Amino acid sequence: MGKAPETENLAVFCDFENVAIGVRDARHSLFDIRKVLEKLLLKGSIVVKKAYCDWERYKEFKAAMHEAAFELIEIPHVARPEKTWPTTGWAGKPRTRASTTPQWPQY
Q: Does the N-terminal peptide bond of residue 81 adopt cis geometry, omega within 30 degrees of 0?
């Protein structure tokens, strides 16, 4: 008897904020995560599904993601200074030494 083919186990970690922005920019009226999952199921068995996002900002997608059995991980939006590297470093502060690495603000 031949050995049964092994099924691959998959984990899906979704940066959903980028997905939501892409859906809005493409002017899609509806995003169906089930279509994505159907394609992934062709590759193997999905054992973990997590979606990371500021869910307060993208409430309209929460129900569909819950229905698809994703664990919704809240990543709150945090305002941070604009990146102006490489000319001045972060937050417009002049760099203190010649370097190819960004200078992080000192708080």
A: no
